[in-house]
């Protein structure tokens, strides 16, 4: 048997045939491996409805299926938790049946008008002009709590100042181009606008300050850990109620602001009723 096998292997035709068969076997195995790889199913998540731009992705919008991996082109989110909670990009609509590709989803903080999504019901956004100095060396950041102070010349020509509103949360700080100052970026940005929200009555009261021209009104945003400095030894500190009454009295004297005055009174009265009701419950 050994002599026969030795003789068989020494035959050139036999070696050639075996070599060809081995190559065919290798090609066959390799081909099947590649076919299996291309047809192997992977789990993917897709939009089960059309999703408009700037829409938060909820679990109801996401479905799961399996498809051959070779069918998928582009970079997409593979994990469910990386999809739900994000927002569709401001310039992209996600079609029904589409995978959640990386360029279709963004974090809420990266939306151009993300600040609007943090407003409590019944409140209105205030965009207040600032600079590096008035933000304490650019140290007032989103989520910080600040107090709002007002300094003015009262009816007796005296300089008074006081806390107008307290414990206001900063929603955002943007530069003159509308870019978030505190984004994770190497670009140095200068604060130009500070954003916060106020209940309707407070918003109207704060806005009313813009209509009072002859009392040299100054508004300062102060971290709630800092005591406001009036920078004038003759200035007298007064209460919030004193300042509110002053504003209301001034607005009532402006003929073309009669509607604003009445609306402000109604809003403040309603807010006070709700506060008393809440305290009694």
Topology readout:
Blueprint: H1 2-10, H2 12-39, E1 41-47, E2 62-68, E3 87-88, E4 105-106, E5 123-129, E6 145-153, E7 159-174, E8 193-199, H3 200-208, E9 218-223, E10 236-237, H4 240-252, H5 258-280
Parallel strand pairs: 7-10
Antiparallel strand pairs: 1-2, 3-4, 5-8, 6-7, 6-9, 7-8
Helix pairs in contact: 3-5
Short characterization:
The chain has 281 residues and is α+β, with helices and mostly antiparallel strands. It has five helices and ten strands, in the order H-H-E-E-E-E-E-E-E-E-H-E-E-H-H. It has helices at residues 2-10, 12-39, 200-208, 240-252, 258-280, and strands at 41-47, 62-68, 87-88, 105-106, 123-129, 145-153, 159-174, 193-199, 218-223, 236-237.
Can you describe what's shown?
The strands form 3 sheets. Strands 5, 6, 7, 8, 9 and 10 form a 6-stranded mixed sheet that branches. The protein has 5 helices and 10 strands; from the N terminus they run ααββββββββαββαα. Helix 3 runs antiparallel to helix 5. The protein has 3 domains: 38 residues; 70 residues, Antifreeze-like/N-acetylneuraminic acid synthase C-terminal domain (Type Iii Antifreeze Protein Isoform Hplc 12); 167 residues, no CATH class. The model has no long low-confidence stretch (mean pLDDT 80). It is elongated. The longest helix is centred in the first third of the chain and has 28 residues. It has 281 residues and is an alpha+beta fold.
E-strand count:
10
Mean pLDDT score = 80
Number of domain modules: 3
Largest sheet: 6 strands, mixed
Give the N-terminus to C-terminus distance in angstroms: 103 Å
The fraction of residues in strands falls at 15-25%
Q: Which regions are unreliable across 5 or more consecutive residues at pLDDT < 50?
A: none
Q: Which class do the helix and strand fractions yield?
A: alpha+beta
Q: Which of globular, elongated, flat, extended, rod-shaped describes the shape?
A: elongated
Which bin fits the share of residues in helices? Answer: 25-40%
Number of helices: 5
Give the radius of gyration: 34 Å
């Amino acid at each position: 048997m050994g002599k026969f096998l030795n003789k068989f292997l020494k035959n050139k035709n036999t070696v050639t045939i075996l070599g060809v068969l081995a190559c065919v076997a290798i090609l066959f195995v390799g081909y099947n491996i590649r076919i299996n790889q291309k047809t192997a199913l992977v789990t993917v998540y897709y939009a089960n409805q059309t999703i408009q731009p700037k829409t938060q992705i909820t679990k109801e919008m996401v479905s799961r299926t399996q498809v051959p991996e070779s069918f998928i082109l582009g970079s997409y989110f593979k994990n469910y938790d990386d999809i739900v909670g994000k927002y569709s990009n401001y310039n992209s609509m996600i079609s029904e049946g589409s995978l959640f590709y990386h360029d279709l989803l963004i974090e809420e903080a990266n939306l151009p008008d993300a600040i609007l999504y943090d407003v409590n019901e019944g409140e209105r956004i205030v965009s207040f002009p600032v600079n590096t100095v008035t933000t304490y060396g650019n140290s007032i950041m989103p989520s910080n709590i600040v107090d709002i102070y007002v300094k003015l010349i009262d009816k007796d020509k005296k300089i008074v100042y006081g806390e107008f509103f307290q414990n206001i949360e900063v929603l955002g700080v943007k530069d003159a181009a509308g870019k978030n100052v505190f984004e994770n970026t190497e670009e140095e940005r200068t604060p130009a606008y500070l954003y916060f929200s106020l209940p309707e009555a407070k918003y109207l009261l704060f806005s009313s300050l813009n209509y009072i021209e002859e009392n040299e009104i100054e508004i300062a945003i102060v971290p709630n850990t800092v005591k406001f400095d009036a920078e004038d030894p003759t200035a007298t500190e007064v209460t919030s109620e004193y300042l509110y009454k002053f504003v209301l009295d001034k607005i009532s004297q402006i003929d073309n602001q009669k509607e604003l005055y009445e609306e402000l009174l109604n809003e403040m009265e309603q807010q006070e009723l709700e506060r008393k009701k809440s305290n009694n419950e």
